[in-house]
Write a structure and sequence with these properties.
Blueprint (H helix, E strand, L loop, with lengths): L6 H12 L11 H7 L2 H10 L7 E5 L12 H10 L5 E6 L8 E5 L5 H9 L6 E6 L3 E3 L1 E7 L5 E13 L2 E7 L6 H17 L4 E11 L6 E9 L6 H17 L6 E8 L5 H8 L11 E5 L8 E8 L2 H20 L5
Antiparallel strand pairs: 1-4, 2-3, 2-4, 5-9, 6-7, 6-9, 7-8, 8-11, 9-10, 11-13, 12-13
Length: 335
């Protein structure tokens, strides 16, 4: 399973095959993956198969950016329409990951003129989604896998953590979404449609759950699709494998985890392990920290998952690990 089934992955597999190493790419048509990565196409597909999306509209500009002030007038008008109900609007470029092309207008965000100025300086999107912004109660990610034989399996559902509005900072398991069952059905429906379009491999579905103002009841809609491995893939897979080992040992299963990025000055896993000490996960404790993507330590950070019996304890474990690393930085070194 590659990070994403891009044309480059298939070119690499073909080169390895020619060199005598047989490689099977567990992914579908790269063109289907590229289509699934376009937010406006996913919005249209979701509506076509009955999956709810945010109240909003799609705006296509003559070209990316704005050479003249009036070029972005369609976006301005859409912001005015979509912000009437809640006082906020969200503007998202059709392409772009991790909030890189996402802007909030209104309370907690920028004003319309600031957002339009930023859009005018960009050249990465010609199509934008402009939607009414709601107060998010929880934003679950449902991670599915479309196998080469067409079967669809669920790896699990996590709640996304945010470093700032709409910028992903990690995941928490299990999800607390009240409409989790409905979301699972919507995700499977859309996954089936994408499979029929030629997609295969890992895929994440981001939903938003919020309280409906008139009734007070929970409501939910699809926010976007991640046609690739995402931040929940490794922790969910690791939990599954650790629990398989714990079942064989007769130990209770790991019930919760929290993930994120640890800032660290360690330059190797050995240094990181030494600093964290008994905070590292062991089967005897049934809890603790598992660092991964440790190749990023050269850049002062690495991903990590904190396993624990509950969500709150997992969050506390993660915070304790970060505190231990910060204390190690502050400690005087001996010459």
């Amino acid at each position: 399973h590659p990070y994403a089934a891009t044309p480059e992955i298939f070119t690499l597999a073909q080169a390895l095959d020619h060199a005598g190493t047989r490689v099977r790419v567990l992914g579908g048509d790269p063109a289907a993956g590229a289509r699934a990565d376009q937010k406006h196409l996913i919005r249209a597909r979701a509506l076509a198969v009955g999956v709810p999306v945010a109240v909003g509209e799609t705006i296509e500009l003559p070209f990316p950016g704005g050479r003249r002030r009036r070029d972005l007038e369609p976006v301005r008008a859409a912001i005015q329409r979509q912000s009437r109900s809640t006082g906020q609007a969200i503007v998202r470029g059709s392409s772009g990951a991790s909030g890189s092309s996402t802007f909030i207008v209104g309370r907690g965000g920028a004003d319309t003129e600031d957002v339009l100025a930023q859009l005018g300086e960009r050249a990465d999107n010609q199509i934008y989604l402009v939607e009414a912004m709601v107060d998010v109660a929880v934003s679950p990610n449902l991670h599915l896998r479309i196998e080469p034989d067409g079967s669809i399996t669920s790896l699990g559902a996590t709640d996304q953590r945010w470093r700032r509005p709409l910028v992903h900072a990690g995941n928490i398991y299990p999800s607390t979404a009240r409409l989790a069952d409905a979301m699972d059905g919507w995700a499977r429906t859309l996954a089936g449609s994408l499979r029929d379009d030629g997609y295969a491999g890992d895929i994440g579905f981001d939903f938003v759950e919020h309280r409906d103002a008139p009734t007070g009841e929970p409501r939910a809609f699809l926010a976007e699709v991640n046609p690739r491995v995402n931040g929940a893939t490794y922790p969910l897979t690791l939990r599954e494998r650790l629990n398989a080992a714990r079942r064989r040992r007769g130990q209770p299963e790991i019930a919760a985890f929290a993930t994120g990025t640890l800032a660290a000055r360690a330059r190797s896993f050995a240094q990181l392990r030494e600093t964290l000490g008994d905070q590292i996960f062991t089967h005897a404790a049934g809890a603790g920290i598992v660092p991964y993507a440790t190749g990023c330590l050269d850049h002062g950070a690495c991903a990590a998952v904190a396993f624990a019996p509950t969500r709150q304890l997992a969050l506390e474990r993660f915070a304790e690990a970060q505190a231990a690393l910060e204390a190690a930085w502050a400690a005087p070194s001996c010459a």
